[in-house]
Amino acid sequence: MSKITNTQLHLVEAASAGSSTAGEGQIWVDTKTPNRLMFTDDTGIDCGISKTLSSLVTTTGGTAILFGGIPDGVSEVTIMYSGLSWNGTDDTIITLGDAGGLETAGYIQSGQMHVGTADYATTDTAFFRFASDVATENCSGMIILKLMAAATNLWSCMAMNGSDQAVHSCCAGTKALSGVLTQVNFTTTSSSNTIDANGGVSMEYS
User: Fold this and answer.
1) Which residues contact 205 (CB under 8 A, 6 or more apart)?
2) One-character DSSP codes across the chain
3) Residue 115 to residues 137, 148, 193: CA-CA distances in angstroms?
4) Does the chain have fewer CB atoms within 10 Å around its N or its C terminus?
5) Cα–Cα distance, 171 to 123 (Å, whole number)
6) pLDDT tens-digit readout, 11-58
7) Confidence class of residue 114 from pLDDT cuts 50, 70 and 90?
């Protein structure tokens, strides 16, 4: 039973919002773990109100960092990283996935990279490419994903990256998934370079 105290409003969890009514919105608590404060508009579209921050991942030696378990109703995902280095020279990428797995086609993306005194552009359809890699460089940056259209699971991506070796890069693009976003994979173009330094990678969603 929900209750109100002098300082708090307690809402009991629910698996979903109630029936939608034109001209009315609903605020409720989703049963996800941890539970999430939600808003549902009068057309039945759910939107997370609260933000959830993952634990900081600082492991090394792996070829990827996979953030899974993204719940329904999420409309914004941010990946943040600091002091990250791969043992090879492949570019850093992310791929998006739903319950059916990670998707490696249908991306519309372009990027610009500055390495030393050289500049070059990239276009990709298999992933979002947001960082070039010079072996032993330490990269830091942020990737922001925002839901553009819930009906088609269309996501927009913007990323910025910098390093301690005069490497700067950015990218922007879109990707329509076949289902609701549930996972984001952080890796390299070959998926074979391993992480040899990692100041921390984390994900925040709402």
Assistant:
1) 48, 51, 52, 70, 74, 76, 77, 78
2) --EE-SS-EE--EESS-----TT--EEEEE-SSS-EEEEE-TT--EEE-S-EEPPPB---S-S-EEE--PPTT--EEEEEEEEEEESS-PPEEEEEEETTEE--S-EEEEEEEEETTEEEEEEESSSEEEE---TT--EEEEEEEEEEEGGGTEEEEEEEEEETTSEEEEEEEEEE-SS---EEEEEETTS---EEE-SEEEEEE-
3) 11, 32, 19
4) N
5) 9
6) 999 988 999 999 999 999 888 777 888 888 989 888 777 788 999 999
7) confident
Mean pLDDT of 197-204: 96
* 203 pLDDT above the threshold of 70: yes
Q: pLDDT confidence of 73, banded at 50, 70, 90?
A: confident
Tokens representing 166 are 């005069």
